[in-house]
């Protein structure tokens, strides 16, 4: 019994001492985690194979930049709450051809569908907050693999088009706020509109009162007729 009580006391103390530490994707230590992880993975591969590849180093340096660029795109059109964590990029193979195939599949089947869905929801919540810039253009401009593979993969990498999320159908958040303020100020400053609104309220109130009086008189007539029949 004493052992159980001591365990419960210890657990309660541990819970009271425990604190959650939230780490966002755009601040340390999460921001630099992907680069550190991939560089360590690359060093281990170089030691095992006893060779060094400058092309692979360039690819490993490019992956974290791509991750940050995509998160910047999400923050511009939605919010930081929907940014991508580093987990999707940790499985990058440590060879040139394998990493190229891996990134193509990751881009087409994981990244692009998520980006489109997150931006679509962001437009519904916030409207247009930034000029549309397709992140696939940045990927093609900074593509770390050779030029021949760029010509092949350039056609297979999916693009993020504004019509895919209905970007042109939403108004700017600033424009929506200003239009609401202008319409409200115009209504408040127009005396004729204020008078018409007051007359409409008075008419609605009088019609409601007349309906109540009619229903009351009708109810009284029914009571009188029922009393007469009873007598």
Description:
The chain has 231 residues and is mainly α. It has a domain at 33-174. The protein is 70% helix and 0% strand. The protein contains eight helices and no strands. It has helices at residues 2-17, 33-49, 54-77, 96-126, 135-141, 147-156, 173-189, 191-230. The longest helix has 40 residues, at 191-230. The protein is flat and about 90 Å long. Mean pLDDT is 78; it is low at 174-188 and 226-231.
TL;DR of this structure?
This protein is 70% helix and 0% strand. It is mainly alpha-helical and 231 residues long. It has a domain at 33-174.
Give structural attributes:
disordered C terminus; mainly alpha; 8 helices; 231 residues; single chain
Beta strand %: under 5%
Largest sheet: none
Flag low-confidence runs: 174-188, 226-231
Strands, count: 0
Radius of gyration: 33 Å
Nearest-integer average pLDDT: 78
Q: What is the global morphology? A: flat
Briefly note the structural class of the backbone.
mainly alpha
Helical segment count: 8
Measure the end-to-end span: 83 Å
Fraction of residues in helix: over 70%
Order of helices and strands: HHHHHHHH
Region (Disordered): 168-231
Pfam families: AAA_lid_NAV1
Biased composition (Polar residues): 170-186
Domain CortBP2/NAV1-like AAA+ ATPase lid: 45-155
Topology:
Blueprint: H1 2-17, H2 33-49, H3 54-77, H4 96-126, H5 135-141, H6 147-156, H7 173-189, H8 191-230
């Amino acid at each position: 019994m004493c052992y159980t009580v001591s365990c419960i006391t210890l657990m309660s103390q541990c819970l009271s001492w425990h604190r959650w530490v939230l780490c966002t994707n755009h601040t340390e230590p999460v921001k630099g985690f992907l680069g550190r992880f991939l560089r360590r993975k690359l060093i281990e591969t170089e030691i095992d194979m006893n060779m060094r590849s400058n092309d692979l180093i360039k690819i490993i340096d490019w992956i974290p930049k791509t991750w940050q660029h995509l998160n910047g795109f999400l923050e511009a059109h939605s919010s930081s709450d929907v940014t991508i964590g580093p987990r999707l990029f940790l499985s990058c193979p440590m060879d040139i051809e394998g990493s190229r195939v891996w990134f193509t599949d990751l881009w087409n089947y994981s990244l692009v569908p998520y980006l489109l869905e997150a931006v679509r929801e962001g437009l519904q919540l916030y409207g247009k907050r930034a000029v549309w810039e397709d992140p696939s253009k940045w990927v093609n401009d900074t593509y770390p693999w050779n030029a021949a593979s760029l010509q092949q993969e350039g056609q297979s990498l999916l693009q993020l088009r504004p019509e895919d999320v209905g970007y042109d159908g939403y108004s700017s958040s600033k424009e929506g706020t200003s239009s609401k303020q202008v319409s409200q100020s115009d209504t408040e400053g127009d005396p004729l509109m204020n008078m018409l609104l007051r007359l409409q309220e008075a008419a609605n109130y009088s019609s409601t009162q007349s309906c109540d009086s009619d229903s009351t008189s009708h109810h009284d007539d029914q009571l009188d007729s029922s009393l007469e029949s009873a007598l």
